[in-house]
Specification:
Rossmann fold, 2 domains, 6-stranded parallel beta sheet, 5-stranded parallel beta sheet, about 15% strand
């Protein structure tokens, strides 16, 4: 049984050592493909793999077609839009993610981004405090809940909208639940985005919705690039000189936004949400354990296809 870890951006050495221990103690072989520069290297490496662990690497139909023995692929992280689920299903390959393992790292970054924008991106001038401000959590999952907890500790009033989480549960955790998504955006000084990218959400954070934000509002995106209507965002920042946008996923029109709205827009140079030593370790080890659990016990708890 061969487990391949294919990572253009490698795990830390400590995480790889931990993955190796889990895999080899189960009696399996571990193979590494790190910092590869050509997709053909991926095709060749996956050809005889029984299990695959990736990070943000794209597991396309072409990758799947080259995988002759593959039974399971695990994306070490919460998002799984880099996996071709249809291709996996067609070849009876189980696809999984590792929800919750990166959540604290992303939540801390979201709060840090709010502070960064509130303090004028650390440039000279008078900023503002987060205490007493309203933050709207758009999707109250693992990350959203942690952002809410940290925001409350800073003295913020927390609102949240998530049609998949019972209102009673959110209210029991001290969260104000608006009747509509539009009401969330209209009332909150900060909106923290945590929605996935799918057919319903792509481009949904658009001009009409964002224009409802109050004066001085700030959108914080640690979710996915695709959920933003980027042309609408550019127009909004032009029309509303008071609004700000900070993102962990650089938009296609980043250069234009940075030039036109330098003091109100910031994008991290490369996605930073899960870039902590702890998240790196947690997600890698979880992926390895899930593979062993699937092979030995048929455990498909985190299956996404």
């Amino acid at each position: 049984m061969k487990v391949l870890v294919a990572t253009e951006k490698p795990f830390s050495k400590a995480a790889v050592d931990g993955i190796r221990t889990i895999v080899e103690e189960a009696g399996y072989e571990l193979a590494l493909l790190e910092k590869y520069t050509d997709v053909q290297q991926f095709y060749d490496a996956v050809a005889d793999a029984d299990a695959l662990i990736v990070r943000s690497d794209k597991v396309t139909k072409e990758v799947i077609d080259h995988a002759n023995n593959l039974k399971i692929v695990v994306r070490a992280g919460a998002g799984f839009d880099n996996l071709d689920l249809a291709a996996c299903t067609e070849k009876n390959i189980v696809a999984m993610n590792t929800p919750g393992q990166n959540s604290n790292a992303v939540a801390e970054l979201a709060i840090g981004m709010m502070i960064y924008m509130a303090r004028n991106t650390f440039k000279p001038g008078t900023g503002c405090e987060l205490s007493g401000k309203k933050v709207g959590i758009h999707a109250y999952g693992n990350v959203g809940r942690l952002v809410a907890n940290k925001a409350k500790a800073l003295g913020m009033e927390v609102w949240a909208f998530d049609p998949f989480v019972p209102t009673e549960k959110m209210e029991a955790e001290g969260v104000i639940v608006p009747a509509t998504l539009e009401e969330l955006y209209a009332n909150c000084d900060y909106i923290s985005l945590h929605i996935p990218a799918n057919e319903k959400t792509k481009g949904s954070i658009n001009y009409e919705l964002l224009s409802k934000m109050p004066k001085g509002g700030c959108l914080v995106n640690t979710a996915r690039k695709e959920v933003i209507d980027e042309a609408g965002m550019e127009q909004l920042l032009a029309d509303r000189a008071d609004l700000k946008y900070v993102t962990d996923i650089a938009p296609a029109n980043q250069a234009v936004l940075a030039e036109k709205f330098a003091n109100r827009f910031f994008a991290t140079p490369k996605k930073q949400g899960a870039e902590t030593a702890e998240a790196n370790m947690n997600a890698g080890l979880a992926a390895a354990r899930q593979i062993v659990g699937f092979i030995q016990n048929g455990d498909v708890k985190f299956k996404v296809n």
